[in-house]
Design brief:
827 residues; alpha+beta; four-stranded mixed sheet; two-stranded antiparallel sheet; 30 helices
């Protein structure tokens, strides 16, 4: 068509693939017919050719102004109802708001009127071409569209579709309800610039959230370090030795005496028990545990390690832990005068450790020894365990807060990414939802899975360099300065527990939108009683939007985190499966019962999310190598490391000896002078008891990779990386062609081998295929259901409600005129 004035004159009917706007820079081809059928192109062919063409014009500013005006008018109606029915105070506030809205409406109306009276139409930026059949549309795409971004440049055909000498980009079109019409005028360069800006903002938000979580976890660890004095053997020994058993007390005296010594109250014979140890450090527990007992067998000094001054678990009598719990009177005597001789900080520390030991023993006396309503107090009337209990509950609160902070920042990331996705001006809702899903996933994955790993990990080389860079103070950058140099038992007890709790919370997060939707639905009669317009009432009862982006982002975070740590914590796979199961049913209920009809999304978003799962597999294999080669705090292997072969071990050992330089030393003096080397049987070998060797064994790639447990993971990881790299090279299309040819040849040979003894039979004639429905027939028969049947913006989704306003429709017709290319089909 040719533009003349404010309208468009119909021209001769174009052939398939021809016809577009005058010199547009982009043409979009759309599939027509029944979108819910995937018909074969080999069946009967209906009539082909172009069914209709819809121009895309630069209407973004006009559509935004119309939408903003509609919202303001709706608010204005609600405020006017308040003026008519509300109190005097509410009337005054409503009238003031109405005045502000009137000013905004006047400005918007002037802008729209100015555009309408300009006498020019909005320029064309593209078009949607509709065909009578899917065969015609596919034929057009084969001739003019690009045949895939992954094909080598030398194989890509040159553009054949030219309009006035300019190449037109042809591609498959999304569904009409999937389009964001006001963004279609934004070019690729502008969208790329907006994407860069939003990426920078996203990175800043992630850095801020990571910083807050890192410093919160670091402060949490610092509180744990201050509480480790009560599990120090020397501290426990000093506190036990400092108890003044000759101090008088009025609690627990035998035979009902008014006063006695603390030793008599506890049944201690000082003539026999020269060293009394009521507090015991359980070194076999992980983490270390201090207990306080009453029995005489529990109070004797350990015979296996007398220097410690504490009874080790191996030295305790069989019934010590069950029969040696202290009584109320003994506890009162101990806190009243037991540590009186120490005084000051040392006395407070021993009293705190006694309270912690009482708590670890599981005694109910601890719960009654702190707070304002404490039952047991010292002679001065002070609850002895108040300070220790306060510290314990603060630490417990911080542990829960560390998990809550991760959840809160994940929610903030979700909201921020939605706002940034709107700023990026995507052409379709699928592109917008994909952008949100990936951003939500990256932010939540960093906060959930990576921050804990960085904070609690200890890599001495990086830690020392950070200290040097910060002049000895590494507290300003607490990364790789944690307490765990490997995936040890202690790591799973602390970091693994927090990670598990965070992931389990994700099981209940899908319930939040469902509960909100249920409550909103129940309260609708109350919340809509003051609605001023029928449109607002209809909108309220339609339900909330069902957004795929945030759900995909949260599921990706769960899947990647579970796969990442599943090698050491296999239960995460079960937890991840439970999250997917719960999410499926909750989303199904919310979609069918409490959400409005969503746009007609294509499968691109789901397929894109599914394509990212291969990176979760790669992450799982990489961490499996690390986890299965981890070492304990004692230096022992967490998992067995069977050798690949004896010859291979000799080769690896030779490389190790060369790395340390031991094999180069020919004399004993030069051998001893080299760190990590020792002279044995006339040769210089590596000293496996040296600290250099231990550091090497912990982080050596040879020791970790080349064993029968981790080598298969390492090999598959390398193959997977090679596969991923090849997919982005020009070699991949040729490999695909070669692979398909080989597969076809192998299939033919296998078929011949299976049918070698069978009598040849003529193949049965294929059943006739049903005719492909014609587009116009599909429209007449109502095949499309409630979905939009064409690319007329005035009937598409939310825009149809906007154009119910006659003034909006009239203005739109002036700025964006449309006349059908086909006779007898005016719109």
């Amino acid at each position: 068509p040719k533009e003349e004035g404010g309208g468009a004159e119909p021209n001769t009917e174009p052939k398939a693939g021809e016809g577009a706007a005058p010199a547009p820079r982009e043409a979009v081809v759309v599939t027509v017919g029944n979108p819910h059928h995937s018909s074969s192109l080999d069946g009967p062919k209906p009539r082909g050719g172009v069914a209709d063409v819809f121009m895309v014009r630069r209407d973004g500013t006009m559509l935004d102004d119309m939408a903003q005006r509609a919202k303001l008018q709706e608010k204005q109606q609600a405020l006017r109802k308040i003026v008519l029915e509300g109190s005097e105070k509410k009337k005054a506030k409503a009238e003031a708001k109405i005045a502000k809205i009137d000013a905004k409406l006047d400005k918007l109306s002037k802008d729209l009127t100015k555009m309408a009276e300009s006498g020019t139409t909005n320029p064309v930026v593209g078009s949607f071409v509709m065909f009578h059949s899917e065969a015609a549309q596919q034929d057009c795409l084969r001739h003019y569209a690009s045949n895939g971004a992954r094909r080598p440049l030398c194989l890509k055909p040159k553009p054949e579709f030219l309009v006035e000498g300019a190449a037109v980009r042809v591609k498959d079109a999304p569904e009409p309800s999937d389009l964001v019409w006001e963004n279609l005028e934004v070019s690729r360069v502008q969208r790329a610039a907006r994407k860069c800006c939003s990426s920078v903002i996203s990175v800043i938000v992630i850095i801020v959230s990571v910083a807050v979580i890192v410093y919160g976890k670091t402060y949490n660890e610092s509180l744990k370090v201050t509480g480790t004095q009560c599990v120090d053997p020397l501290t426990i020994s000093n506190c036990n030795a400092a108890i003044d058993w000759a101090q008088t007390t009025a609690h627990g005296c035998p035979a009902g005496a008014a006063e006695c010594t603390l030793g008599e109250a506890w049944g201690v014979d000082l003539a026999v028990e020269t060293e009394v140890t009521p507090m015991h450090l359980d070194t076999a527990a992980s983490p270390l545990k201090t207990s306080i007992f009453n029995g005489a067998d529990c109070r004797l000094v350990s015979e296996t390690d007398p220097a410690q001054g504490v009874a080790l678990p191996s030295a305790l009598a069989a019934g010590c832990k069950t029969n040696g719990t202290i009584t109320e009177a003994q506890w009162m005597g101990l806190i009243g005068s037991g540590f009186a001789s120490l005084g000051g900080t040392a006395g407070d520390l021993c009293a705190t450790c006694a309270c912690k030991a009482l708590q670890d023993s599981g005694s109910l006396l601890w719960w009654q020894s702190f707070g304002d309503s404490a039952k047991y107090t010292s002679d001065a009337g002070v609850a002895p365990c108040t300070a220790q209990a306060d510290g314990f509950f603060v630490l417990l609160g911080l542990q829960l807060a560390a998990v809550a902070v991760v959840v809160i920042f994940n929610t903030i990331m979700k909201t921020t990414t939605q706002m940034l996705a709107f700023f990026e001006k995507h052409h379709t809702l699928v592109e917008q939802e994909t952008s949100i899903a990936i951003a939500v996933f990256i932010g939540q994955f960093v906060n959930t899975a990576l921050v804990s790993l960085l904070v609690y990990a200890e890599i001495s080389t990086i830690k020392n360099r950070i200290k040097e860079a910060l002049q000895g103070d590494a507290s300003a950058f607490p990364i790789f300065a944690g307490s765990y140099s490997d995936f040890s038992e202690q790591w799973y007890g602390v970091v693994g527990a927090q990670l598990m709790l965070t992931i389990i919370i994700n099981v209940f997060l899908p319930l939040v939108p469902l509960v909100t939707a249920v409550l909103t639905n129940c309260l609708l009669p109350c919340t809509t009683s003051g609605v001023a317009s029928q449109q607002a009432l209809n909108r309220a009862y339609l339900g909330s939007d069902f957004l795929l982006s945030t759900r995909y982002g949260m599921l990706l975070n769960t899947i990647f985190t579970c796969f990442m740590y599943a090698s050491g914590m296999p239960i995460l796979l079960f937890v991840g499966g439970c999250i997917c199961f719960v999410t499926y049913w909750i989303d199904k209920i919310q979609l069918l019962r409490f959400s409005r009809l969503p746009p007609q999304f294509s499968g691109k978003l789901a397929m894109y999310i599914l394509s990212t799962f291969k990176y979760a597999i790669l992450l799982h294999m990489v961490f499996a190598v690390w986890v299965f080669s981890a070492t304990k705090v004692t230096g022992e292997n967490m998992f067995p490391r069977p050798s690949l072969s004896a010859d291979f071990d000799k080769t690896i050992q030779g490389w190790v000896d060369e790395a340390f330089g031991c094999v180069l030393q020919s004399t004993e003096s030069t051998c001893i002078a080299v760190a990590a080397c020792k002279w044995t049987s006339g040769s210089c070998i590596v000293d496996t008891s040296s600290q250099e060797w231990k550091d090497y064994a912990n982080f050596s790639f040879f020791q970790r990779l080349f064993n029968a447990i981790t080598f298969p993971y390492f090999l598959f990881t390398l193959l997977f990386l090679v596969y991923m790299v090849l997919r982005w090279t020009p070699v991949w299309p040729f490999l695909c062609v070669f692979g398909s040819v080989v597969a076809e040849m192998v299939g033919e040979q296998w078929t011949k081998y299976r049918n070698r003894n069978k009598v040849a039979e003529e193949p049965a004639a294929p059943a006739p295929k049903p005719p492909i429905p014609d587009y116009l027939d599909a429209v007449r028969e109502g095949v499309f259901g409630n979905f939009t049947v064409d690319y007329n913006i005035t009937t598409c989704g939310k825009y149809a409600e906007l154009f119910l306003n006659e003034s909006n429709m009239d203005m739109f017709r002036k700025l964006s005129p449309y006349a059908s290319l086909l006779e007898g089909k005016g719109k």
